[in-house]
Write a structure and sequence with these properties.
single chain; about 150 residues; alpha/beta; 4-stranded parallel β-sheet; about 55% helix
């Protein structure tokens, strides 16, 4: 486990459900880009229940974190991240938020913690820490119980 690390949006949303807190950094951080991505959620929700849940995630993140800015160093690093994604055959525009978050992590020399590592594959110099998705852990537990 790293002392400091950046959580991507999936990890921020699932954080209350993660059962092994030792898999997260001692000092978890988010980026301003993550906060921007979270702020879109309530505005595009299809139902009142979904809107309320997304608003709760946004408000919790705002209360828990002081986001790291997307600064000049991150902007310069973004160019390399975008090039890495293109060389890997991936479209930068399809994962724009993820690419901006990854650029912030690389520029600051911080690992990025995610439950969706495939979103960040192909980005050189990014230290990626995969966090098990709680639903997959639940499925594994159910399989183990069934197999006995």
């Amino acid at each position: 486990m790293s002392e400091q690390g950046i959580l991507d949006i999936s990890t921020v949303i699932l954080r209350p459900r993660l059962t092994d807190a030792t898999r997260l950094p001692a000092v978890p951080m988010i980026t301003a880009v993550t906060l921007a991505e979270l702020s879109v959620g309530p505005l595009v929700a299809q139902t009142d229940a979904e809107r309320a849940a997304r608003q709760a995630h946004l408000q919790q993140a705002e209360a828990d974190f002081d986001p790291l800015p997307f600064d000049a160093a991150a902007a310069r690093t973004f160019g390399q991240v975008a090039a890495d994604l293109r060389h890997a055959g991936r479209k930068t525009s399809a994962r724009a938020y993820d690419a901006l978050i990854a650029a912030t992590a690389v520029a600051r020399g911080l690992p990025l913690y995610t439950v969706n590592p495939d979103d960040f594959r192909g980005i050189n110099k990014l230290e990626l820490v995969e966090i098990p998705h709680p639903d997959e852990l639940d499925a594994d537990s159910a399989t183990e119980t069934t197999d006995r």
